[in-house]
Description:
alpha/beta; Spore Coat Polysaccharide Biosynthesis Protein SpsA, Chain A; 2 domains; 7-stranded mixed sheet; 3-stranded mixed sheet; 14 helices; about 45% helix
Amino acid sequence: MDNLSIFGWVILIVSWVIALGWTWRVGVAIRGLATMPDLLKRPVNRSAPRAGDDPVLSVVVPARNEEKAIETTLRSLFRIIGVPIEIVAVDDRSTDATGRIMDRLAEEIQDGTTVTVHRYKVIHIDSLPAGWMGKTHAMATGARLTTAPWLLFTDGDVKFREDSLARALTYVDRVEADHLVLFPTLILRSRGERMMIGFLQVFAVWCSRPWRAQDQNALRDFLGIGAFNMIRRSTYESIHGFEALRMEVLEDLRLGYEVKKHKFRQHVVFGHNLLRIHWAEGAMGIVNNLTKNAFAIFRFHLWLIVAAMVAVALLCVMPLLGLFFIQSGGLWVVVPSVVILLMLAAMYEFYRRYTGTSIFYVLTFPAAACLFLYALGQSLMRTLRGGGVTWRGTFYPLQELKKQCGPLW
């Protein structure tokens, strides 16, 4: 210890502070996540629908250039049991076969070659009105044509288990919720995907407390997920739905924010394999997805994303520098790094039951953190360099995005 330089002492003190911070946040997260409801452990109380029953739930499926996944998504919805639903498939200016696949499935239903108890509509959007993001416009358009007392907004690459919606509706009826978010089960096909998703799940202990979402007074604890945002129609209309989020990049998360801001009852639940999604191809696919949206998370504030990058470096990279001072500082320098690794391992072990990712992926955490920092930096630089961003084939100027994006979370 006596041989430590001033820089070494700084590393030591900061590492201990961060180690204690990780211990606190991981302890809170594991206790909190363990209390979250699991739809698979709840009874299903839904009678089988009959032909002609009015739909209880309207499912809006916006899709743009999803020809590889949209048929699987829609057919999984056709197989839903236990609840009458209507499905509104929205082809948002696709340049591939997405719209044709939607139309073909409609013809199958009319011919009686598929199930007949579901109502199924297809909407083709050919142009985007000024002042709208493509996805928010597609969802708002689809919602206007629905009739059921509940709305579910999902994505065009999600696969639903046949009892998923019956379980969800049974749950919201029992707890009288206004908004339900169901965590999707992520399909992970490569080591790079496991590395990046593992990092994001673990680092989330600093950003999100989903177990507190159902506390109506905890306005900072909210969630929305594009794969499964189910909301009571009266609630959706009360907060003006996606009409109020026309230029919102993170429309799923912002919907959850609006629900909590207006003090409606929000619940977040688990349900392993009730819905499945493959988010991106490989580690760099995930990095590219993060790059598209990262700056928007910080509401396009330069100072905020820079502060976040510094925080990520301090929390995820800097503590491991203590290992380089073992010869001069002894165990006191190493212990905080070991404590952090143990806390990270505890979170990886918790999520292993949902992702199947080995606890040994904790060793990839620093590398994933560096890729995450790269994604934040790329998102910032691309937006500033280009004077805006391009989503779904449309360019949006940065000044317009700042003007329309609303306040911080």
